[in-house]
Fold each of these.
Amino acid sequence: MPELPEVETVRSDLARLACGDEVVEVKVNENRVFRDDPSGGRDLVQMEGQFVSAVMRWGKYLILLVSPDQNYRPVQQFGRSIIPSVDWSDHAVTAVLLHLGMSGQILLLGDRAEDPRHLHLTIGLSSGTRIGFADTRTFGRVLVSSGMGAGPLNEIRHLGADPIQDPCGADLAFDRTSGSVSPIKAQLLDQGRICGVGNMYADEILIRAKVHPRTPGTNLSNRDISALKRSVYRVFEEAISLRGSSLKDMTYKDVSGQPGMFQERHLAYARAGRPCLICGDSIVKERFQNRYSHFCPNCQKLGPCD
Ligand SMILES: [Zn+2]
């Protein structure tokens, strides 16, 4: 599943390709991805004749803003204010919220002789660029709204701090982890606390911080919390610079169809049975809730507070 670094890579590519362009055509090929949208995707046609103002991200969500004013740009600020800073009172602004789900891909279609299978949405731009949303498993979702308080805002309102957009908020969220008995990995995966971390990056953050995935929050030392903060920024910044992680199933590729490279730097995820790159012990894979954790039992000991 694409996590924060993969979605950020897609966001920056999409912003470069689309910002300032007019939307000349919108095609909806499959309605399933609009299952949570009140209009069933019909409001997407409002984008035709309007201009792409911004491509934003919060956690694993992409937000495409279009406006009838070619020069309109939302005031983007770091921190929680990035979303409210959009002038939502201007009902002419249309916001399209995209979540890639398990296998969703945003693809540049312009140079392809044949469109990929499972293409659900196509947006044609005045530059000739065509952008597609393809998803083999259709767990991805698209919501569209114009005006304040409608679908997209409600969808993202519950999300916690994004570590890249809102590092101060993320620091506070990490400070609060010691107030809960929940295992630290469950807290990292809780999008209402810190958003953008999924199973893969949780394992990579935890091994670098030398914290066992099942450590109850109440057992975390101050050293652990400081290490987790350093680790989340280090992992995400490095993963973004390497354009995300592409595993063997290749469910994630960038908009040009190219894989990311951060999987080459993985210390734990998908490395079960291989030597830990820190100490040489074997990485183990263990059931964790409805998925698996990968960790080093030597570097990440499950013990009482230091
Ligand atoms: Zn180790």
Amino acid sequence: MDTASNNYVTQPEKFKVAPFPFFLCEYCQKISDTCYFCYNRPCNFIRKLQQFQLYNQPNGFTIDNVVYHCDNDYIYEENVDNKDRIYDPQITRCKIEDEFVNGKKTKKDHPGFCKYCTMYDENWDSNFYERNNSRYRGHMINTHGIHPNGAICKMPDTGYFCYKWVRNHWFETSGFFCPYPNCNAAFAIGEKGHGFHEYLRHWSKVHVKLEPQSIMLPTI
Ligand SMILES: [Zn+2]
Ligand SMILES: [Zn+2]
Ligand SMILES: [Zn+2]
């Protein structure tokens, strides 16, 4: 590890090109200049996958839980029709006070409470995502792998030990190949959150439109 980073101590703020890896063994496969998989080392992929799956279970919070923890400048609303819909929020809220921009009353947004994120001592208000822009949509896609059309991201079932060049050192993690047919894109599990963000972005760009649309359409 030190041999790789010591070369660059004079300019720690600059990201350097990945040096030739020192760890290569006969089971190592080059994925890119900044990513290698080693098929000879045990990896923590299954644990990461289980964490992701736990994280994506409905959190089960009721409107009473939410009202108790959140800002009371809002009216909280529950849409029981959305209970079984995987994408749409069941709990939303809107500001009690009207808001004005240049003297004109603005259309009230009804931000949605994410029904998957688990709240511990966190700020519950931050689990509401605005819907008159793309924040709710972006959160559901990039954090939970759930698309507005009702598609759910398919997760890989196998992973491998992975070395990834991150901020001037070889970071050890696990990696995997995209499980969609005829796609061999490789991903490393990142350091932040559940670590699958890069893959979820890839899924939403490349694969989501090919998925069957399982949304429950509103009956009007
Ligand atoms: Zn190796
Ligand atoms: Zn969430
Ligand atoms: Zn893919």
